[in-house]
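Appendix B. Worked example

We walk through a single record from start to finish. Start with the input: the chain for Dihydrolipoamide acetyltransferase component of pyruvate dehydrogenase complex, Algibacter lectus, length 542.
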Amino acid sequence: MAIVVNMPRLSDTMEEGTVAAWLKKVGDKIEEGDILAEIETDKATMEFESFNEGTLLHIGVQEGETTKVDELLAIIGDEGEDISALLSGGDASAEATEEKTEEAAPVVEETKDEAPASAELPEGVIVVTMPRLSDTMEEGTVATWLKKVGDSVEEGDILAEIETDKATMEFESFQSGTLLYVGLQEGDSAKVDELLAIIGPAGTDVSGVASSFSSAVPAAKVDAPKTEAKKEAPKSAPASATPSKPKTSAPAPTPVTADGRVHVSPLAKKLAEDKGINLTKIQGSGENGRIVKRDIENYEPATSAAAAGKFVPSGQEDFDEVDNSQMRKAIAKALTNSKFSAPHYYLSVEFDMENAMSFRTQFNSIPDTKISYNDIVVKACALALKQHPQVNSQWFADKMRLNNHVHIGVAVAVPDGLVVPVVKFANEQSLPQIGAAVRELAGKAKNKKLTPDEMQGSTFTVSNLGMFGIDTFTSIINQPNSAILSVGNIVEKPVVKNGQIVVGHTMKLSLACDHRTVDGATGALFLQTLKGYIENPVTMLV
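Next comes the structure step. The output line below is what the pipeline stores for this chain.
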């Protein structure tokens, strides 16, 4: 059924938008997450991505034209679908609009609820709500406030660091004024479009605005930020296995940067002082190398490998509690859905790695060239998938999509969980290109610099734990993929060759398949093709 896409509200003050450019044209196929158009708001020109799949059937606003928020922007549906009723405003239009309204309920309902309060807003006062910083974000957690109540705020100032399901991102203010009220303390979470802060002229009483915006936020909380913030900072200390040092400990030395100041968030600085951590020893992962909360929590001194765990008296029960991050919640939701919706089965094989080891040694003898065994596996999978599109498929309720392109997701472990950046068109890339792409994506993943586009669109996934000494394991499919390959360690062991027992090197792999799309024989044939490439990697150069 066709879906009506309305002009989105891309900023809290946006009332109308202008289409700067259409990145899709009528008749184009649309995937969830594709960029439909660039929309010029009252603040900036922003990319607007689709939350639906189908064919772009109609464009309601041409490039350069302007329309109000929630007015018809485009229609997406099945190819060839009749949308005349939608364009003429018939019953079908009402049904489609109702469906779209349900999808965008938080924005529409919030606007309606705010109407009475907006009329009573003191002059110059702006309510700032929790922004949607990723296409899958449903709620956000305030990692750090960079401004406190009473501070002057300029347009473009960073208000806070918001932790989403994908990354921790800086959120900047679109208004100037004084920060009058903070609706969430550091570590607190809220749904998208819920009250985050209030900005306005200094001295304005906004207690009534805060209480009327959401009944869950009492007006008395207006005076609480300073007190609660002091209680909040030590709360993160149990996340470390090392007991916090008392506040009387000497403050951490201050590193001097090129601009003469420390690039560190206030909360990170406070945690570093509490833990006695020297900030000069830490490489920041925030914007422009800024040290943020997670850098302090994840910091391990060089001698930590030999250090003992947290001391607990004999016979005493003890535990630390760590709040689930947005990334951890997203991982739990996605993997639970995959495990209990897709009928998994597993195929295990063991490959002879002697030729692969010799091939890698010779290949890396080329100046300025370095490939890993994982790069060889990724390349081999990409070539094998071209011959077995059924394994390179995706399952939908009413159809199966056999992908003719190969985008391989490579699982990367990060402190907060697991992310899967994607090597696009892996079958068309050389081994050095794949190696460079994987290293770049892995580095971005560990520094939380991956963009949404770099984590979307995979058609197959590779998960490698061989570098951790794991011989064999099975993985959960990264939907909507139909399969994921688990790669183990290369093991030296006795093997039989030509009737003789000799020393050999083997590697075990396990292919998890979705039985709805990949039958056992199909998966087995894919592994046979993969075996040919990995055991004779020179064939990948042909």
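Two observations about the output. The chain has a mean pLDDT of 80. The chain is about 25% helix and 25% strand.
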